[in-house]
Amino acid sequence: MKRFLPWITFGLALLCLLAAYLYVSSAMSAKNETFSRQRPTAQETALDVTVVTVEASDHAATIRAVGVAEPKQNLTLSSQVSGEVVSLNHAFEVGNQVRKGQVLVSLANTNLVSELASAENTLAAAQLTLKEEQRQAEQSNAEWQAAGLTGEPASDLVLREPQLAAAEAEVAAAKAALAEAKDNVQKLTIRAPFDAIVVSKDISLGSYLSSNTQVATLYSTDKVKIELELSSSDWQKLPSSDSMIKNQWPANITGVNEPQKKWQGYVDQAGMHIDSESGLRSLFVAVDQPLQQSPPLLPGSYVTVTLAGGLLADLWQLPNSALSQKSQIWYLTDEQRLANFDATPVFVDREYVYIKAPENLRQAPQRVLTHPYNSYLTGTLANPQESVSQ
Questions:
Q1: How far is CA 245 from CA 181, 188, 239, in A?
Q2: DSSP of 251-273
Q3: Angular region, 4: left φ>0, alpha ψ -120 to 50, beta rest
Q4: Which residue of 34, 47, 214, 287 has the fewest C-beta atoms within 10 A of its own C-beta?
Q5: How many Å apart are CA 369 and CA 172, to the nearest integer?
Q6: In sequence order, which residues have a C-beta less than 8 Å from that of residue 172 and are 6 or more positions away?
Q7: Contact 305, 265 (CB under 8 A)
């Protein structure tokens, strides 16, 4: 018995080792089976977003620019002759309106009046001399014919042709001198050359004016013009300049500091050159009879001019907030997931941004996010809520 005891002990140890191996193997298999079992997929949370439904359509661009209402004519009125100011029209005061041809200032200059009288006397004497020469020329011709002489006289002095020509020239010169003297005397009366506002009055009663002395500054009242400096992209949104001028393209005008003041104008002229430094080209808008408008449009006013451009096709009209800080437009796919594309506005106004719709999104209405954030990721599941402000 003792001889088999070591073998019995060895067999028992071997059975224990085998049992331990089988237990460990079973435990490891169970653990691996637990790990290999597929975990349930976590439910995806949809991102709440606000959207607006848009369709590609035609929209007219709006061009807005600021300018200054300037008079059609801005004249520094000067005296053309010298003289003493002897009378001033009561209407000739700063801020008043004067009519074309209205007398503003009367000057006195005895030398000019004397020159007029002398010119009249010179003309009368020249005309008398001419009549005497005409009579003598007629007499010379009669004597030549009575003498029965043939051919031409040896000298034209015989028929007094040079003397007659000289007398006629004297009359012509005297008439020109008289016209000049009359014109100078007429210039002693200074009149308004057009309907105008008196912007400055630079003389007073009793002052003596030399020729070319500044008398006043006048602004015409028949029309004001507003110069708008537009970029090439602005010009591309407008009809041709010839078409706008021909059709007097309408312009809505408001005061810069008083937007409640409104006027209606029209395109009157287009600049024919581009400023080499700024790259801008001028467009001129006019308002007729500005002081008769309600309220009056005063020269020198800063105004905002709004022009409607031509229709542009396949545009989305979106809230300004729809364009992200990265200049992207975010929209929802049919699977309710976020997508975006880079966008450059075709034009903008106070409320909306107008985006050229991508070709693959033009055929059906699209849902566009109204307030996209930079943290958004493409492919994110979204829960859209329609904007109530659209």
A1: 45, 42, 10
A2: EEEEESS-TT-EEEEEEEEEEEE
A3: alpha
A4: 34
A5: 88
A6: none
A7: yes
**Strand partners for 267:** 285
Residue showing tokens 């012509």: 172
Q: Which two tokens stand for residue 248?
A: 């007097």
Q: Which residues of 254-279 are buried (b: 16+ CB within 10 A; e: fewer)?
A: ebeeeeebebebebbebbeeeeeeee
> What's the mean per-residue pLDDT of the chain?
88
Distance separating the N- and C-terminal Cα atoms of the chain = 103
Furthest CA-CA distance within the chain: 204
Bridge-partner residues for 84, per DSSP?
A: 108, 208
* Residue whose C-alpha is closest to residue 301's, from 64, 66, 76, 65: 66
Under 8 Å between Cβ of 122 and 250: no
Overall residue count recorded for the chain in this entry: 390
**16 or 185, higher pLDDT:** 185
- Between the alpha carbon of residue 196 and those of residues 67, 90, 218, the distances in Å are 22, 15, 6
How far are the Cα atoms of 155, 162, 191, 227, 350 from residue 285, in angstroms, in the given order?
A: 71, 62, 30, 7, 22
Rounded Cα distance between 224 and 226, Å, is: 7
Which strand (E) or helix (H) includes residue 161? helix 161-186
Question: Could you give the C-alpha distances from 298 to 13, 193, 223, 302, in angstroms and in order?
Answer: 118, 20, 11, 9
Local structure of residue 292 (DSSP, 8 states): G
What pLDDT was estimated at residue 97? 95
Report field, pTM of the whole predicted structure over 0.85: no
The secondary element (H helix, E strand) that includes residue 233 is helix 232-237
Q: Cα separation of 148 and 68, whole Å?
A: 84
Q: Using DSSP, how many helices (H) and how many strands (E) does the chain show?
A: 5, 21
Worst-scoring range by mean pLDDT, 227-231, 333-337, 339-343, 347-351?
347-351
For 201-220, what is each residue's pLDDT tens digit?
999 999 999 999 999 999 99
